[in-house]
Amino acid sequence: xxxxxxxxxxxxxxxxxxxxxxxxxxxxxxxxxxxxxxxxxxxxxxxxxxxxxxxxxxxxxxxxxxxxxxxxxxxxxxxxxxxxxxxxxxxxxxxxxxxxxxxxxxxxxxxxxxxxxxxxxxxxxxxxxxxxxxxxxxxxxxx
Length: 143
Fold this sequence. Notes:
The chain is of the alpha+beta class. The chain is built from 3 helices and 3 strands, in the order αααβββ. It is globular and about 40 Å long.
């Protein structure tokens, strides 16, 4: 009986050590967040250098005599802060980035994740941050 208990204890102890040895303590570089978990940006990653670009083409409802460099609504990017927020395109919408963009917005800030319904009322001073399904900022614009 004593031999069986000793063997069982040794087996369980060895199994625990093997499991601990196989467990990663730090996530790999390409680790993906768990569903529902907010991705964490790599603070050592180089920030993308993006500047505001006026659209190449606009829908038929857009006026042809809008100011040069404006969006399809005729709003210049500096009106809402999109000129400065363009530097955030390509970055994760982390709480830290969100706090920074609060400071960039001239008057109002609106986050637009995919599949989000939003009002189409035009507000010149509203900075819109468009996110993709991975919480990455894909576009910034005033409307």
